[in-house]
Amino acid sequence: MRESFQNWLPRLVLAPSFLLILVFVYGFIAYTGYLSMTNSKMLPSYDWVGLANYEKLFRLRHWNTAMKNLAIFGALYIIVSSLLGLLLAILLDQKIRAEGVIRPIYLYPMALSFIVTGTAWKWFLDPGIGLENVMHQWGWESFSFTWIKDRNMAIYTVVIAAVWQSSGFVMAMFLAGLRGVDNEIIKAAQIDGATGFRIYRKIIIPMMRPVFLSAFVVLAHLAIKAYDLVVALTGGGPGRATELPATFMYSYTFTRNQMGVGAASAIIMLMMIFSIIVPYIYSELKSGENR
Amino acid sequence: MSAAGQDIALKGSRITRFVIYTVLIVFAIFYLLPLYVMLTNSLKPLEEIRGGGMLSLPKVWTLEPWRAAWSHAQIGVSPTGLKPFFINSIMMVVPAVVLSTFMGAMNGYVLTKWSFRGSGVVFGLLLLACFIPFQIVLIPMARILGLIGLAGTTWGLVLVHTIYGLGFTTLFFRNYYAAFPTELVRAAQIDGASFFQIFWRILAPSSAPIVVVTVIWQFTNVWNDFLFGVSFADFDSIPMTVALNNLVNSSTGVKEYNVHFAGAILAALPTLVVYIVSGRYFVRGLMAGAVKG
Asked: Does A150 touch chain B (CB under 8 A)?
């Protein structure tokens, strides 16, 4: 009796988490998927409309703005954060005496809430009291930086704030990667007469491929989820110029009472993230088994 | 991370070194600037900020903005300051962190030392759940919280954060316990130790590092959350991030920048302190969250 209870105990201990995840993650995904095919407005309804919400979604200018913004924001956020992170990691790996001081300074933004980051940058970029004003007072009268108020440029201010928050973290990932490079390889290259820059370009940076991949996955999924930063920095404005899928989903579901369309947009977001994450997790678990 | 630099240091002239240091310092300024702006301007009277000079130190030093942000600034409709929301956040964070960490530890223990047919699938499902966009659960979650009577309560938020934190906490403990010698567990089993005895007497005593990493990770994530707070909280449960956003956006008429900055620092303070006190573990958590396997 005791034997068999001990055998079942591990399953019993894992069961609550399994059930919670099954219901609250996968069950909820299924429910949202179902709602996306009904004509739910303010409250869920169960009138089946097939893919009508998706057709409507893709015809909405509002959604297309959000997707275009996500493309701009996501691409720049990933590229700039990765390149900046790599650059800073390489520079910091040159036996810098003050590394212990500089590294934490680069990384601390990651500990902040996006709401705090957004609030700080909102006023810093505000033409009235922020950077522009400071430059004018310093005598650079013609300096103009009004991106945050400019429909065409506001999305780039979101990129600036997001890069500020995450690039230090990418730096830390690359630094760990660089520290893991086998010294023998480098010594061999040096004996062959290769110089510092060439060693980086030809040998070390190509060896950072797994780090690039991890950074891409982390940043891409943060970009698709980006919500708080936009709320705090621009509120989606001016107008709807900085709307992203996450803010679109929230406003359609909870303030515009178009729950069916909101659910459809959430499903699209999920599909975007899974198309990046699932292959990544799969390959990581596979390589973990082979190790 | 703390190992010395590589031997490939871009060798070379003083000029190269000078350029490297210059770039590093310029970026240090870039990362510090917003914090500096928030701090200095939170110590200035409002007229001084409106007069410009965001980057200069206060001419008149005042703590009034901090007092206002904490105890009597207008947030939403009532002049309560951020204090009650700070307390709401604490009441939400502590149980959520304790619960999700404990469950993560148990899950990690089972997945590595008592794995059974199908436990790998459970882990896969938990892992995938780490990355879902939370928009996908907002609608059904709002309904469920209503059905079980937890809508708008702190306990509702505790439940939400515990569930959606499980993936990461399980991942952390699983990876940590995977490296723990299974022979010790088997030997104890042969000696007749039970499932829980083995956990408490053999694994738990050496789990301190991973507990620290997990607690910091969960604390930071739950404290900094905005989406769940703004979706599911009522006045008695609104967390700090949502209150800060209300403070910044609700002030009718005069925009009290100095109070906003003081409030922003108050909202950032707990996670910032954790980072300063235990940065090493904080980074380890970030890396573990990014690099699986």
From this structure: no
Does B214 map to a domain? yes
What CATH number should be reported for the domain holding residue B273?
1.10.3720.10
Tally of domains in chain B: 1
Q: Which residue of B has its CA nearest to A196?
A: B10
For residue B138, give its domain range.
Answer: 83-290
Report which DSSP code applies to A127: T
Neighbours of B253 (CB within 10 A): 6
B284 Cα to chain A: minimum distance (Å): 10
Q: What is the ipTM of this complex?
A: 0.88
B9-61 per-position pLDDT tens digit: 555 678 888 999 999 999 999 999 999 999 999 999 888 888 777 888 888 89
Q: Does domain A62-290 have CATH number 3.40.630.40?
A: no
| Residues A192-246: tens digit of each pLDDT | 877 778 888 888 899 999 899 989 998 999 999 999 999 999 988 788 889 999 9
The domain segmentation of chain A, as residue ranges, is: 62-290
Sign of CA dihedral B44, A229, A132, B24: positive
Hey, what's the torsion of the CAs at A113, A118, A120, A124, to 10 degrees?
160
| Chain A contacts in chain B segment 227-286 (CB below 8 A) | 227, 231, 241, 244-245, 248-249, 257, 260-261, 264-265, 267-268, 271-272, 274-276, 279, 282-283, 286
